[in-house]
Amino acid sequence: MGRATEIQREYFEAIQAADFDRIRSLLHPDYAFTDEEGTEHGVEGSIEKISVFTTAFPGFEIDIHRQLEMGDVAVMEATMRGVHRDEMAGIPATGRSVEMAYCNVLELRDGKIYREHDYNDNLSLMRQLGVAEVPT
User: Fold this and answer.
1) CA–CA separation, 64 and 62 (whole Å)
2) Which of 64, 69, 125, 127 is the one with CA 20 to 30 A from 6?
3) Which of 35, 38, 12 is nearest to 23 (CA)?
4) Number of folded domains in the chain?
5) Per-residue pLDDT at 133
6) Do 60 and 79 meet the contact criterion of CB atoms below 8 Å apart?
7) Taking a C-beta distance cutoff of 8 angstroms, is the pair 99, 80 a contact?
8) Are 30 and 114 a contacting pair, CB within 8 Å?
9) DSSP letter string over 23-78?
10) Residue 43: what pLDDT?
11) Is position 113 within any domain?
12) CA 22 → CA 43, 52, 88, distances in Å?
């Protein structure tokens, strides 16, 4: 395991623990995060998105299937699992268990996370929460 994948694992351990000080310490001053909808966020926007998720799905789990490293870039394919215990995006807690395929790509600069991209299927998540239906 190289430095990029080590930092990626450390980052996701901090996310699972909702350790926002640790998360901030891993981010480069010029950090930018592009979410699954293509919107770019800085440090505080990213922290807000993480907080929404960790509040809605406290104690969620990440099952890492594969990590790849190419120099200062790490790619992680995983499955996220959790129970919807608090409001998220206007959706009251449902108590439902969810499972979502997830991909994270991050790039390091100066030993810190400089760029990050997330890829996941929000429609699948909304279906599992019972707020979206499969078209017939």
Assistant:
1) 6
2) 125
3) 12
4) 1
5) 82
6) no
7) yes
8) yes
9) HHHHEEEEEEEE-TTS-EE-HHHHHHHHHHHHHHSTT-EEEEEEEEEETTEEEEEE
10) 96
11) yes
12) 12, 17, 23
pTM: 0.92
In a domain, 135, yes or no: no
- What is the pLDDT at residue 135? 73
Task: Give residue 88's pLDDT.
Answer: 93
**pLDDT confidence of residue 73:** 98
Label the pairing between strands 61-70 and 73-83: antiparallel
Domain extent at residue 69: 3-128
Residue 134 forms part of a structural domain: no
CATH number of the domain enclosing 121: 3.10.450.50
Residue 136 located in a structural domain: no
pLDDT tens digits in sequence order for the chain, 136 residues long: 799 999 999 999 999 999 999 999 999 999 999 998 899 999 999 999 999 999 999 999 999 999 999 999 999 999 999 999 999 989 999 999 999 999 999 999 999 999 999 999 888 999 999 998 877 6
3-state secondary structure of 127: helix
- CA contacts within 13 A on the Cβ side of 55: 14
Cα four-point dihedral sign 37, 38, 39, 43: positive
